[in-house]
Amino acid sequence: MIGYYDYTVVLTYLSMLSATTGIMLCLNDIGHPYLGMFFLMFCGLCDAFDGKVARTKKNRTEQMKKFGIQIDSLSDLIAFGVLPACIGIAMLRSSIEYSNFPDFKFLHLADKSAIIKIVLTIIAVLYSLAAMIRLAYFNVLEEERQQKEGGGVNKTYLGLPVTSSALVFPTILLIHIFSSADLTLLYFIFLGIVGFLFISKIQFKKPTMKGILIMISIGIIEAAALAWIFIVMKKQ
pLDDT digit string (tens) for 215-226? Predict the structure, then answer.
């Protein structure tokens, strides 16, 4: 078989499988954006460690390194470029109605006009496009940097990393669930803002291991909160 299948690529493959599963769940029937968010956060967890795991293998060939860079970007496009957009579309198709939290259910939305739906869909599509442009541009810059510097790791990011979506959008979903307001429009506003930051020239400091662990902790808290909600819903 073509390709590589050692431990250095396992997390990247798992991220891609998780993202694809999340997309399918979001686009199935009425859509399930809240369940899809679990898969987005799992993708973020995999991405936090895939590069570090790959660098533990000292005898990687140049072809293996380039393969790793390519599949990482392709997986990131699906996980952090397409999945958040699909979660937004699922939110557009369904909403929450409840009287006394947590006794709520999912409903189809009929109050949004066709024009609003078209505009929001365009925003979601442009978000995915911005993610693709960023990842492709990063691949070009990274290859040039590797040739000039002979390896090493960047200390800053040019533009917002696409993996940031694994924290930004679950936070909006949690606020959406715990508040009585329909935050679907807010979700799409952040899709537009985050998409713009992907391709901006703003410098972002690369997080240290401590910063990564803090972000992972936040993600775990968010996942636990969502899991608690689903358990409570199931008992109702």
Answer: 888 888 888 877
**Are 55 and 64 a contacting pair, CB within 8 Å?**
no
- Rounded alpha-carbon distances, angstroms, from residue 128 to 38, 70, 82, 132, 162: 19, 17, 6, 6, 10
Across-strand partners of 95? 107
Q: Return the number of other C-beta atoms located less than 10 Å from residue 216's C-beta.
A: 17
Closest Cα partner for 90 from 109, 115, 113, 75? 109
Count the Cβ atoms, other than its own, within 10 Å of residue 84: 31
| Sequence-ordered alpha helix ranges (H) in the chain | 10-27, 33-54, 62-76, 83-93, 114-149, 165-178, 184-198, 209-235
CA dist 135 and 140 (Å) reads 9
Outline where 99-208 has alpha helix (H). 114-149, 165-178, 184-198
* Contact between residue 4 and residue 72 where contact means Cβ atoms under 8 Å apart: no
Band of the pLDDT at 39, cuts 50, 70, 90? very high
> What phi and psi values does residue 226 have, to the nearest 5 degrees?
-65, -40
3-class DSSP state of 151: coil
